Amino acid sequence: MTSKIAAYLRDFAPATPCLVLDVDRVETNYRRLKAALPLARVYYAVKANPGAPILGRLTDLGSSFDAASWEEIQMCLEAGARPENISYGNTIKKVSAIQAAYAAGIRMFAFDSEPELMKLAAHAPGAKVYCRILVENKGAEWPLSRKFGCEMEMARDLMVLARAWGLDPYGISFHVGSQQTTTGAYEVAIARVASIFTDLKQAGINLRMVNLGGGYPVRYRAEVPEIDAFGDAIMGAMTQHFGNDLPEMLVEPGRFMVGDAGVVSAEVVLVSTKAKDDPVRWVYLDIGRFGGLAETEGEAIKYAFRTPHDGTVEGPVTIAGPTCDSTDTLYEKSNYRLPMALEAGDRVELISTGAYVTTYAAQSFNGFKPLAEHYI
Amino acid sequence: MTSKIAAYLRDFAPATPCLVLDVDRVETNYRRLKAALPLARVYYAVKANPGAPILGRLTDLGSSFDAASWEEIQMCLEAGARPENISYGNTIKKVSAIQAAYAAGIRMFAFDSEPELMKLAAHAPGAKVYCRILVENKGAEWPLSRKFGCEMEMARDLMVLARAWGLDPYGISFHVGSQQTTTGAYEVAIARVASIFTDLKQAGINLRMVNLGGGYPVRYRAEVPEIDAFGDAIMGAMTQHFGNDLPEMLVEPGRFMVGDAGVVSAEVVLVSTKAKDDPVRWVYLDIGRFGGLAETEGEAIKYAFRTPHDGTVEGPVTIAGPTCDSTDTLYEKSNYRLPMALEAGDRVELISTGAYVTTYAAQSFNGFKPLAEHYI
Question: Can you give the residue ranges of the Orn/DAP/Arg decarboxylase 2 N-terminal domain (chains A, B) (predicted)?
Fold first, then answer.
C-alpha cells in the first residue's frame, strides 16, 4: 500500500467496500516497464482497470492502449488517446463494433480465425492485423486455456489470406497467461513466433511486429520475479531468434500496471464458527467474488490482507463474501490465517487489488451495489 | 419458452444480449407451488430476480418475500409488500442493515451464529429469529457447502440464548442446495429439524416454524422431478415427524418461480476452430459468465439452446462469452452440440434463464454493459 493510499484511508475512511488507487504508482509502474523493456511499445490492457484517471495519466505518458471492445476504445478516446495508439485486441468482435472502431480511426486489429479475418477484410479494409497463436500457459496463476489463439499452421495460412484480402499482415501475438510467474514462458513463445516469421518470409510476407501480450505478475502473498527479469528474458530470446533484425515489439500489461497501485478497503460483517469446537473461523466481508474479487475463483489469485490487529495471535480462517451464495467464498483451502481479535465492524485492506476488480463487480447481486472507486 | 416470449422476440427482436421474462409464467409457477404445498407460506427468494414487475405481481398474489439485504427489502417495500411479509434471510448482516430493516418494520431474521444473534438482540429487539442449520446438499446441481448454517448442537444452544436475550425463538431453516433434483434431501433435513424441536421442547422452548428453504429445480437440459413430487415428499416427512402438531411451514423458492419464465436472447459473435482439422467449433456469444451467466461456473447449470437452424445437422462445440478472459467459457466439457450451419450474426435463445442472471451481470467487464431486461 502506498503512503498516499494509507493517508487517504486514515483521513477520509471512505465507505466500504471501495477501491482506493494511487495514480502516481501507475506512472511508476509504466516507467519501470519502459526501463525493463526500452524497445517495446506499451499498450495498456484497459480491461484491467479502465478508470478515467488511469487512462488520462497513461495518455500523458505516451502509452498506447489495448482495448477489448468498442466501449473500451471510446473510453480511451475520451481520455485523450489518439486512434493510432489504440489496438483492438479482442479476437471476437461484432461487425458493428469493427465498423465503429474503423470509423473512429482504429487501424490495428487482432484475430485468430478465418471468419474474423473475413469480417476485418470487409469492414476494416487495409488495417494492420495480427494473429494470436496458442502458447503454453504453464506458470500462470490465471491461465488462459484455448479460448484465444490458433495453431501455428493456421496462423501462417491466415496471414497469407490477410494479404490476399487487402489487409496489412502486421504481426503475431500470444499471451502466456495472466500473473505469469516464470520468464521461460515468454522464451518458448518467442521461439514459436520467430518460426512463423521465417516461414512467412519464404511466402513473401514480411511480418514486422511481435506482440508479447501481458501476464507480468504482481506480488500478492508470494514473491514473484522482478519486471527486469522478464525484460532480460524477453530481450535475450528476441535477440537469439531475430538477431539484428528485431521486429517492432509490443507489450500489453494490465495487472502489472495497476495491480499494486490499488487497495480494496472492506468491512468485516461477521466472524463465526459452525460448531463450538470448530478451530476454523469464517470471516465474512462486505465484498466477495461477486462484488469484484472474481479472480479468487478457484482461489487462483491470493490477495494479502491487512487488519487493525496485525501482529497479534492468528488462527485459521475461511474468508467469504456477503451474499447468500456459497460460491461467494474467497479462500477455504489456501491456509489463510487472520488475527483472533478480528471482529465484525473491523476494517480490512486487501493489498494490490488495483487490477481486475472494479469492472467485474456484479451490478446488483443480492441487491449489493458495486464497490466505490477513489482515484487519488 | 412461452408463446408470449416467442411472439415478443419475433415482433420486436430486441437488441442482444437481453432477458425477456413472461410475468404471467411467474404467476403460474406461484399457483403450482401453492397447489403442491398448500400448507406452506411462500417467501419468494428475491435474489433470484428482483425485477419490479415480478415483485409487484407476487405481492398482488399474496406472496411473502425472502430478502438477502436491506437493498432487497427496499425493493420489496417499493413493490408494495408489507414489512410483516418480508423475512431478512441472510445470516450475514451489517448492523446498519439490521437497524434499517427493523426501523422499516421487518420482524423476522435469519442467523446461524452467536455474534449475529447478539447483533439481532441489540438492534432488532423482540424480533422473530430462526436459526439455519447445516444439511446435506447431495443431489443439488448448485450445492451450498458450509458457508451458511451451523451444526445442530449449536443451533439448540443459540435458540436458548435467543430467548434469554429477549428475541422470539421462532424456528429452524435449512437449504438443501439450489437446483436440487432429489426429494430425499428434504426428508433427511426435516428429520434433523424435528429432533431440534423435540430437544428444545424439553428446554421449555416451543419452536413454531420450519423454513424449508428453496432448491426446487427447473428443467434445463435434463428432466427433473415435478414440484408435486417435492410437495408429497415434504408433507410425508413433516407428517411423519410432527404428526398432527404441524408447525408453520415456509418455503423460499427462487429459481422455481422465475427460471422457466425467462429467456436470454443472444447473438453469435464468432464461430471458429483452433486448427484446420479441429472437429470442435468454438461458438462465441455476446453474453457469457460475466454478462450474467454466472451459474455456468464449473458447467454447473446446463442451459438449453435454441437456434435458427434447429433440426439440421449438428456438431460438437465449445460455447464461450465475448470477453478477453478464458474463464469466460460456458461449456467445454458438457458435450454440447449445435447446428453446423450456425454462424456469426445468428440469434440464439437460452431457455429457462429467468433466475440468477440479471443481477449477476458484471457492471462493465471488458466495457460490456449488463444485459437489457424486458418484463412482458
Answer: 24-258
Q: How far is A244 from chain B (nearest CA, A)?
A: 32
Contact, A189 vs A153, CB < 8 A? no
Taken in order of first residue, the domains within chain B and their CATH numbers are 24-258 (3.20.20.10), 260-375 (2.40.37.10)
φ/ψ bin of A335: left (φ > 0), alpha (ψ from -120 to 50), beta (otherwise): left
Measured from the Cβ of residue B352, the count of other Cβ atoms closer than 10 Å reads 21
> With contact defined as beta carbons under 8 Å apart, do B50 and A364 qualify?
yes
Residue B224 buriedness (CB in 10 A; 0-12 / 13-18 / 19+): middle
Q: What is the ipTM of this complex?
A: 0.95
Q: Which residues of A are catalytic?
A: 324
Q: What is the mean predicted confidence (pLDDT) over A114-132?
A: 98
Question: What is the reported pLDDT for A291?
Answer: 97
Interhelix angle B114-123/B152-164, nearest 10 degrees? 20
pLDDT of residue A146: 87
Closest Cα to residue A123, out of A97, A91, A87? A97
Does residue A143 carry a pLDDT above 80?
no
Contact A365, A292 (CB under 8 A): no
Chain A interface mutation, best of B92, B120, B174, highest count of A Cβ atoms under 10 Å: B92
Residues A322-348: pLDDT tens digits? 999 999 999 999 999 999 999 999 999
User: Cβ–Cβ contacts within 10 Å for residue B288, how many?
Assistant: 28
- Of B221, B223, B372, the C-alpha closest to B305 is B221
Mutation for testing the B interface, residue in A117, A147, A179, A295 having most B CBs under 10 Å: A147
Contact present, A71 and A359 (Cβ < 8 Å): no
For the stretch B21-61, pLDDT in tens is: 999 999 999 999 999 999 999 999 999 999 999 999 999 99
Q: How many helices (H) and strands (E) does chain B have?
A: 10, 19
Q: What CA dihedral angle connects B146, B147, B149 and B151, to 10 degrees?
A: 40
Which DSSP string do the residues of B232-278 spell out, in sequence order?
HHHHHHHHHHHTT-PPEEEE--SHHHHGGGEEEEEEEEEEE-SSTT-
